[in-house]
Design goal:
Length: about 375
């Protein structure tokens, strides 16, 4: 039974990471979440030419308030965005907004919005069945499940959990701060990286009931003061990685898909040894091939590149590539594995890199997209 579940999880992961069919014209559509609040700001969309790497000029897909993180449902018919605010309709909570995607134009039509069950929602994901949105609320110290109704609309939360605790950093870890939420390839376990407690919490997830229940053990710990932020699975489903914001490190885990447990394998720096200035790490992404893992540095303003040992999941640092902008909050790799787009929040730019699948190295194409405060890239 354990072997069967492991093989199923591995197959799901590999299928999920494989290249999707591109458009008839050889393009891949890409969306950008931002810190936009006024008229003409919100979520932007463009098209990436998969042969040349040229991206069309970004255009507004939908106005929204601080849609800092985005997630698609499995059919790509619906897009969900956090509204990273502190209050909604007079209540101390952020929101999650549902949009319908126009397959021809890429434009978004707002469907509805629901409370995220906590202020400052910072990350969300849609489960593999397309029936639930899971959201992490950084300021509110909570994580919640919002069921998806027919035609993509959201229902109010069906389940939520509240974190309590703190870490050794008095400024950033004064309380619990769930920063991201992710699901395993088998859609059975949810992982909440809590920056405030130096823990990655594990929950059993029921997509039918839309519920979260504590797992045993309840969490995997990282070094005190490290501040786990974002989390990513290796395409094989056997390994997982968390980027630690405050420590500028990345921790590799071995994953037991049967029990939903993470075993610490290794922690290493995201920075070159000679860099001694202020930095916070932000994002972690595994290459679709599984050969490389990337993370972003804010301060050093770079993408750190690591090779992956296919047997152990251990990482080896192989270089850094400047993002040619300030504060690369988020980045993503297109489904073919040939291009990486880095969102530089504080220089209002998204920079396009060509990725060499043979070496993992990056090379800027010279193309810079101008978007106000970009913070999320979703293909």
């Amino acid at each position: 039974m354990k072997l069967a579940r492991f093989l199923l999880a591995t197959c799901v992961a590999l299928l999920g990471s494989s290249s999707r069919a591109s458009g008839a014209d050889g393009t891949e559509r890409v969306y950008f979440g931002t810190y936009g609040q006024g008229p003409g700001e919100g979520i932007f969309v463009a098209e990436l030419n998969l042969a040349s790497g040229v991206v069309s000029p970004p255009r507004l897909a939908a106005e929204a308030v601080d849609p800092s993180f985005l997630a698609f449902d499995p059919s790509y018919k619906f897009l969900y965005a956090v509204s990273e605010v502190s209050t909604l309709d007079g209540k101390k909570t952020g929101g999650v907004v549902a949009f319908a995607v126009d397959a021809k134009t890429g434009q978004l039509t707002r469907l509805n919005e629901q409370a995220s069950q906590g202020s400052g929602p910072s990350h969300l994901v849609v489960d593999k069945t397309g029936k639930n949105v899971l959201v992490a609320n950084y300021d509110g110290g909570t994580a919640a499940v919002l069921p998806i109704l027919e035609h993509g609309r959201l229902r109010s939360a069906s389940s939520w959990v509240t974190h309590h605790g703190r870490g050794p950093n008095p400024e950033r870890q004064e309380k619990a701060h769930p920063h991201s939420i992710n699901l395993d390839p088998g859609n059975r376990f949810a992982f909440v990286a809590d920056l405030g407690q130096d823990k990655v919490f594990v929950y059993r997830f029921d997509p039918v009931a839309g519920s979260l229940r504590s797992n045993t053990p309840q969490f995997a710990a990282v070094a005190p003061g490290a501040g786990p932020r974002h989390f990513a699975f290796h395409p094989s489903g056997r390994f997982a990685y968390v980027v630690n914001e405050l420590g500028s490190t990345i921790t590799a885990f071995w994953y037991d898909a049967e029990n939903g447990t993470l075993s610490n394998v290794q922690t290493l720096s995201t920075l070159p040894k000679e860099f001694k200035e202020t930095n916070t790490a932000a994002e972690v992404v595994a290459h679709p091939s599984g050969k490389y893992v990337y993370s972003s540095n804010r301060g050093h303003d770079s993408i750190a590149i690591f090779s992956v040992d296919p047997i152990t999941g251990r990482l080896t640092a192989i270089g850094h590539e400047p993002t040619q902008g300030k504060t690369p909050r988020n980045f993503n790799i297109d489904p073919t594995g040939n291009f990486l787009l880095a969102a530089n929040q504080d220089s209002d730019s998204v920079v396009v890199f060509r990725l060499d699948p043979a070496t993992g190295k990056l090379k800027a194409t010279g193309q810079v997209l101008k978007i106000h405060k970009p913070v999320c890239v979703r293909f």
